[in-house]
Amino acid sequence: xxxxAEKLIVSERVATVVMxxxxxxxxxxRCLFTQLPAxxxxxxxxxxxxxxxxxxxGFGIGQEELRAMLxxxxxxxxxxxxxxxxKEAAELLASEPSLLRPANxxxxxxxxxxxxxxxxxxxxxxxxxxxxxxxxxxDCPFRIADELVARARREHPAALVVIDFHAESPEEKEALx
Length: 177
Known about the structure:
CATH topology: Purple Acid Phosphatase, chain A, domain 2
Order of helices and strands: HEHEHEHEEHEH
Number of strands: 6
Low-confidence stretches: none
CATH superfamily: Metallo-dependent phosphatases
Strand order of the largest sheet: 1-2-3
Number of domains: 1
Oligomer: single chain
Radius of gyration: 16 Å
CATH class: Alpha Beta
Number of helices: 6
Mean pLDDT: 91
Helix content: 25-40%
Structural class: alpha/beta
Largest sheet: 3 strands, parallel
């Protein structure tokens, strides 16, 4: 592998991403714990991304829920507007590398909205964004997506980029896609 294009070829195998929507409370965690390991093995998942913002009794995420999700095989936990519902969220976001908050929240808040990680066969950049329609007035997710994807391409050119876009509006979701 000498050419730049050849260096980008990581594997001839197709990457398998498992994305799980909002895990809600104990029933969602139970389902994740009992079903995800076998499913991930069956589909040969390279990365598992789950939204955990509602995992603590329907609003927010706590240490126990975070540990349960990671022990179930989740690689990255994304969030949205409900992540701030619990006091411990700020501490978790600041200390847990696999827990993301939307990148388009104001600067200075705890945590991060983008994560780089090396997997078994692939490198990954996971970006967490939140829409604005029917939600908080935060920074433009489209502009932030452009900035972060460009940054990911510069810093990790071989990485596959996955964006979890937490939004209420189907139109906003379609526009980002």
